[in-house]
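Example (one chain per record):
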Amino acid sequence: MLGQYFYNQTMKKAVAVFGSLFNNMRIVRQGTGETRVPISYGPRKKFLARIQADTVAAADASIAIKLPRMSFEITDISFDATTKLNKFNKRVLPIEGETAKANVVNQSVPYTVGMQLNIYAKNQDDALQILEQILPTFAPEYTVGIKDMEGPGTVTDVPIVLTSTSISDDYEGDFQTRRT
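Predicted structure:
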């Protein structure tokens, strides 16, 4: 039963660690100084629709999404046969304060989780400042140690690999229409 708990928490921890990698992004603007860029989990289409709706209802600026902003989401989950280990491997973890009892954790199953990070900005300079803080970190891989991922007292090294980057800049329409 304990093994089941750890497997259920593994995905949640991996997603949280991915998002926390980008918590301290900041941009610098002439005259206003340094601004922190917020990040949250959510689909790209949801944020684009909200930004477009905020443009229409710009009279109430208190509800508008502040830009620049980042979001991330899971795009795919696939089995990773290249790192699969023997499924009969088990770890026996002693229970603190108990001498006759121990928890048994089965071998974890390797999955590759595809994540997409999105940057939203009013102007290209803000977006490029954020991108320039991210790209040097991944060359093309950055490894993070995650505690208690495969049982108490363990640290699992999880490589985060940058597979691609793309820019989407929609500027069709009149000058009153917001670019996406």
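Caption: The beta strands are 26-29, 33-36, 39-41, 69-79, 90-94, 102-106, 111-120, 141-147, 155-161.
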